[in-house]
Amino acid sequence: MFSREWESDPRPTYQQLHDTGPVHRVTLPSGSRAWLVTRHEDASAALANPSLIKDPLRFGKRSRGILSTLPDRLRTVLFRNILEMDPPEHTRVRKLVARPFSAARISRRLADVETRAVAMVDALPEREPVDIVRAFCSPYPLRIVCDLLGVPDSEESRLRVQRWARVLNAGHAADAGAYVECAGEAMAYLEELVALKRREPGDDLASAMVASQEEEDGLSPEEVIGTLFMLILAGHESTAHLLSMSLLELARDPELRRDLAEHPELLPNAAEEMLRYTSPVKLAPWRYAAHDLALAGTDIRAGEGVMVGVAAANMDPAVFPGPGRLDIRRAEAVRHLSFGRGIHFCLGAQLAKMEAAAAFRAVLNRFPDFTLAIAADSIEWQRGAMIRGPLALPLVFGSR
Fold this sequence. Notes:
Elements: H1 4-8, H2 11-20, E1 23-27, E2 33-37, H3 40-47, E3 52-53, H4 72-78, H5 89-98, H6 103-107, H7 110-122, E4 129-131, H8 132-137, H9 139-149, H10 155-168, H11 176-199, H12 205-211, H13 221-234, H14 237-252, H15 254-262, H16 267-278, E5 287-289, E6 293-295, E7 298-300, E8 305-308, H17 310-313, H18 349-366, E9 370-372, E10 394-397
């Protein structure tokens, strides 16, 4: 695991893991040891298990790997967010942040999301290679999440955030100097954003988070910055990889393109199946056993780390027959674990699926035919244990 071959095509490894057992002892690239849960039933249970907690400080755990290179304030502020919290702290913070992500509010954004997708796809060049990651897959969800948060939109700020996401999500594969530099830039930028929202509040999530500091159970200044950091990076990077890997599959399969173009009613389920099949999130963030416990018959000691193999669970043949087959009519596609389970279920799940369906519709309406501009085995993939996706994806779009 964690090799370049695994990053480019992890499915054979997942099949091996399923064949050999439900829980595996693994060594991560950082050198840390953890238990890896890979079968769907066990992964789903682990994600919702209240005895698997998120806060490593309860066991005196020090930051792992490249995180340990960060100055204390950067580490404790930027990486202290709801992904690393347990109740009751998690309950309080999530309640304050979740309101803009309600089903009703996200549904009202559909027209804006579709308009954005069409405009950006219409701007793509024809009959020449274009890096779809840079031209569409990354800026499209980033602009939407920035609109939601109230982050000023400019080409400079988008490129800066994309660089932070690429470096900080690379984890063990990142250059230590670049990692510290990007974390420092992100902290400074978010401190400026918070100051701006305090001076000039708007009708956006960042302003609401800043205003909550005046409430009795409101966010602390550190929680505001940490949560903004998490929402900006998590709010676009995994969606960008979902889109790029989905377009890769569509580029390689003309019959799949035609089928989806002729049956737009399948778009919502196609988004679910792409989430399962491409699995942009390979591993859920660390959890720790709150006490001695058993997972799928394996004894886990208190304080030991547990990682849930989301992508492996999405390839479990016990739940998804023929898991290596991409099937946009797959009835059980909605059972994927790409957004997690339980109290840490992804806040932006509905928004991400809406963005994906709108993107597929816009691309197929404008460009029924498009192809990969390079050999598939020459694609360079994002390095890192947690996230999977191509760093660049040159496609050639034919005219309508």
